[in-house]
Design a protein that fits this description.
- With 449 residues, the chain is an alpha/beta fold.
- The chain folds into two domains: 1-42 and 196-431, Hexokinase, domain 1, CATH 3.40.367.20; 44-183, ATPase, nucleotide binding domain (Nucleotidyltransferase, domain 5), CATH 3.30.420.
- Helix content is 41%, strand content 18%.
- It has 15 helices and 13 strands.
- It has helices at residues 2-8, 12-30, 99-116, 162-172, 185-194, 252-259, 268-273, 278-293, 312-319, 327-336, 346-377, 397-401, 403-416, 419-424, 433-447; strands at 40-41, 54-61, 65-73, 80-89, 125-131, 135-139, 142-145, 177-183, 200-206, 210-217, 233-237, 390-395, 425-429.
- It has a six-stranded mixed β-sheet with strand order 1-11-10-9-12-13. It has a five-stranded mixed β-sheet with strand order 4-3-2-5-8.
- Helix 8 crosses helix 11 and helix 9 crosses helix 11 (346-377).
- 50% of the residues are buried.
- The structure holds adenosine-5'-diphosphate.
- Residues 62-63, 207-208, 275-276, 312-313, 316, 396-398, 401-402 line the site of adenosine-5'-diphosphate (ADP).
- Pathway: Carbohydrate degradation; glycolysis; D-glyceraldehyde 3-phosphate and glycerone phosphate from D-glucose: step 1/4; Carbohydrate metabolism; hexose metabolism.
- Pfam families: Hexokinase_1 (PF00349), Hexokinase_2 (PF03727).
- It catalyses: a D-hexose + ATP = a D-hexose 6-phosphate + ADP + H(+); D-fructose + ATP = D-fructose 6-phosphate + ADP + H(+).
Length: 449
């Protein structure tokens, strides 16, 4: 166990090294040099400021569901007069059908949603399209899809422009919508916060995966073609999930899990941090302890060997278990890992809880280190003198549902920033941020000259 404590609980100097390595990678990526962080220009050179008015729609896809929303923005600054939202499950066959059919499904759902909510359709309505896949963005409303991720395996996707595809599908329904903005969930999260908070400068996703974006000076984005924008600032999508550096504390359990993933050798940071992987990393460490230290008795329960058997929501319940003699942990081990009750002694449960806590703390520590790096890079960590209030908008199931995790993240930020700076940095949980932000961005793009 001591070996896991020393590899998972990261001391301050190690976190500062990770922070500095992240800054180096981010700055190399910005200059267009070889880097694990792509630092992609999002082409979003306007952000909502609460002064937008009118009716705007958003279509948001990226996981197992997609969502359509309508917002009516009133004349009173930052006030949403009307908000309608519907979630749609993606039927199984749509994960492998031709991309045209999937876009038809999105367009059909948008049109029927608008009808259901009494949208008259007399005027063409702007739509923000939140499309959370890797896209090489060429304009606010154009881009080329680089690769499919998650469960999607559709022909006709890679190389397509998602905006054109959705617009063509809308035209097949002869519906009065114009897709005016293309973005991913981290940009949507930042935009969602900007609408009501002018201090919002960074957007972070902590869900199945992780990513961050921030407001950058155009002059610093080396990869941006000259004349791409006449505005001074643009949102940069870090793709920090792929961040890697020698200072990252990659353990044997991380390496072994990585080998079983479709993108082995990539996205090391995401695999140490995000909801898709934390449970599996913990399971592998628990298995190792069962083998080396007889955690569950002389033999290793076969059930512990089942890959992905411990989900991150289960890990979070164990990490937060304050039940008498850890009966909650024993129950999860019985329910999720099918371990016999006789094997789940108090001592075993207590070790399992410690592993879950350490994996959770490591994730929060790594996110805090990179966040501190991003804040330093944009001059918001007090190191360049002068302190400004800064809001970091966060969305995603890991941050939203795992209460203790939010506390860990705050603690590590407090450790890495001075108390004066930390007090100026707010981590703001933004619910439904990517969808709301997409509609607000559609509004901001429409309002901008
Ligand atoms: P996505 O990132 O796929 O768009 P979400 O933002 O809802 O979707 O995040 C889902 C992820 O959040 C899941 O993969 C899961 O790991 C994580 N998650 C959900 N509930 C919890 C929880 N109670 N504790 C920890 N993680 C959770």
């Amino acid at each position: 166990m001591a070996q896991y404590r020393s590899s998972l609980l990261l001391p301050e100097d190690r976190l500062l090294k990770i922070r500095d390595d992240f800054i180096k990678e981010a700055q190399a990526g910005l200059r267009g040099e070889n880097s694990s962080c792509l630092m992609m220009a999002s082409m979003m050179d306007v952000l909502p400021n609460g002064e937008e008015t009118g009716d705007f729609f958003a279509v948001d896809i990226g996981g197992t569901n997609f969502r359509v929303i309508l917002v009516s923005l009133s004349e009173s600054r930052g006030e949403v007069a009307r908000f309608e939202m519907e979630d749609f499950a993606i039927p199984e066959e749509y994960f492998s059908c031709h991309a045209d059919r999937l876009f038809d499904l999105l367009a059909d759902s948008l049109v029927s949603f608008a009808k259901r909510h009494g949208f008259s359709g007399k005027k063409t309505a702007p739509v923000g399209f939140c499309f959370s896949f890797p896209v090489n963005q060429t304009a606010v409303d154009a881009g080329t899809m680089i690769k499919l991720t998650k469960k999607f395996d559709n022909e006709g996707f890679v190389g397509c422009d998602p905006v054109q595809m959705l617009q063509q599908a809308i035209q097949r329904f002869k519906a009065p919508f114009k897709v005016v903005a293309l973005l991913n969930d981290s940009v949507g999260t930042l935009a969602g916060a900007c609408y009501e908070d002018p201090n919002a400068k960074v957007g972070v996703i902590l869900g199945t995966g992780t990513n961050a974006c921030y407001v950058e000076q155009v002059a610093k984005i080396g990869t941006l073609a000259k004349g791409a924008t006449s505005r001074p600032r643009m949102v940069v999508n870090t793709e920090w999930g792929n961040f890697t550096a020698a200072s990252l504390p990659i353990t044997q359990a991380d390496r072994e899990m990585d080998e079983t993933t479709p993108n082995a050798g990539e996205y090391h940071f995401e695999k140490m941090v995000s909801g898709m992987y934390m449970g599996e990393v913990a399971r592998r460490i628990i298995l190792q302890l069962a083998e080396d230290a007889q955690l569950f008795g002389p033999s290793v329960p076969d059930e512990l060997r089942v890959p992905w058997a411990l989900s991150t929501p289960a890990l979070s319940k164990i990490a937060e278990d304050d039940s008498w003699v850890l009966s909650g942990t024993a129950q999860i081990l019985a329910d999720d890992l099918h371990l016999p009750a006789s094997r789940c002694t108090y001592s075993a449960c207590s070790t399992v809880k410690e592993v879950c806590l350490m994996v959770s703390r490591r994730s929060a520590a790594l996110v805090a280190a990179c966040l501190a790096g991003l804040l330093r890079h944009i001059g918001r960590d007090g190191s360049h003198g002068g302190m400004q209030a800064t809001t970091v908008a966060v969305d995603g199931g890991l941050f939203e549902h795992f209460d203790a995790y939010r506390g860990f993240l705050r603690d590590y930020l407090d450790l890495l920033l001075t108390p004066e700076v930390s007090a100026m940095v707010q981590l703001k949980r933004i619910r439904d941020a990517s969808s709301m932000g997409s509609a607000y961005l559609a509004a901001a793009v429409t309002a901008s000259p």
